[in-house]
Structures are given as C-alpha cells and as structure tokens.
Design brief:
Elements (H helix, E strand, L loop, with lengths): L16 H4 L12 E2 H5 L2 E4 L2 E4 L2 H19 L1 H6 L11 H21 L12 E2 L6 H26 L2 H30 L1
Antiparallel strand pairs: 1-4, 2-3
Helix pairs in contact: 3-5, 5-6, 5-7, 6-7
C-alpha cells in the first residue's frame, strides 16, 4: 500500500528532523539512529552491500559494536592496571562483565532482535561525527559505574557474584539505554 508522501508536510520545514521523526528522509527514523540495519539483513562489506543470513548479521554487528566500545573505552582500559583493589572481585573481572554485556546487547539491538529501552524506534546508533564525543563520554561512564559499583557491592557483601551481577546489569542497561540517550543528544545538538 503506497502512502501519500505529501500529506502532512505542511510545517515540516519549520521543525527539526528530530521533531519530524525523519519519516520523509531517505534515512527514516530518528536522526543518529540506524533503523534500517535493524529492519533488514543487508550489511556493508568491503565497499559493497551484501545480503547475509542471521549468523552473518550477528557476526557483522558484533564486530562493529565491539570495535566501537573497544576504541572509545580505551581510557578506562588503560587505567585498569593502575587500580589496586583487595577483595573478592578483581577490577578486570568487573570490566570484562560490564564490557561483554555492553557489546553483546548492543549487537542484539543493532540486529533488531532486542528493542532499546524508552524509544519506539529500533536499531543502534549511527557513526556520525556529532556522536563521537557522546560515545566516548557515555561508554566510559557506563564502564566506570559498572566497575566501581561491582567492586563496591563485592566488597560490602563479600561475594564476587553479587559484584558481577552489578556489572552485568550496568552493562546491559548501558547498551539498552544508549539509543534513547542518543535521541535526546540529537534533539539538543542537531
């Protein structure tokens, strides 16, 4: 069913793309978001677009999200050896749990298999220059909250599993809330 693209356009020029929702844009969806990657199995590979199966989608998106998180969280990674903590949980274990869940759930959101929280639009965040600073701040903050909270919970309870649980929850919420944080960032920046 073809819908009329001219209907409802009155006043669209006065509103920002974030307010319009991007429905008249060739890149439909909120600005800064990759909704098409979540809705199709077409991925970019070595300069061309290719159709992949579900395993191909997962591995392609896993590498993409892992590279994002890995590059932008280098400050936290470099600081890990400088932190000396005595307790049932090591800094590395807390970092690994938070990072693994951040990457894994980010991959599932980018594939479109898990919806992000507090937003109706599916998909992960587009790699745009305006979003590089947000990624660096947000990912490092998520890891610091995950690591610091995990170490504190493990020290108070004396149980390493409780601290790992904190890191897992922090990494999971960080991944699921990142698209919503991006939507808010784009409304204020764009």
């Amino acid at each position: 069913m073809e819908r009329d693209r001219t209907a409802g356009r009155a006043g669209a020029e006065q509103r920002t793309r974030a307010q319009r929702g991007g429905e008249f844009s060739p890149r439909a969806g909120p600005p800064g978001r990759e909704t098409t990657a979540a809705e199709t199995n077409v991925r970019r590979g070595w300069g061309s677009r290719i159709r992949v199966n579900r395993f191909g989608m997962f591995t392609n998106d896993l590498v993409r999200v892992f590279a994002e998180v890995g590059v932008f969280t280098l400050p936290v990674l470099v600081a890990l050896p400088l932190v000396a903590v005595e307790g049932p949980l090591s800094v590395f274990q807390a970092w690994l749990a938070a990072t693994a869940l951040l990457v894994f759930l980010g991959t599932l959101v980018r594939c479109g298999w898990v919806p992000p929280l507090l937003t109706d639009a599916p998909g992960w965040v587009r790699l745009k220059p305006t979003l590089l600073v947000l990624r660096a701040l947000y990912f490092n903050l998520v890891l610091l909250v995950g690591i610091g909270g995990a170490l504190a919970v493990a020290a108070v309870t004396g149980v390493a599993g409780a601290g790992l649980g904190w890191a897992v929850v922090a990494g999971s919420l960080g991944a699921l809330l990142f698209p919503r944080v991006t939507d808010e960032w784009m409304v204020r920046v764009a």
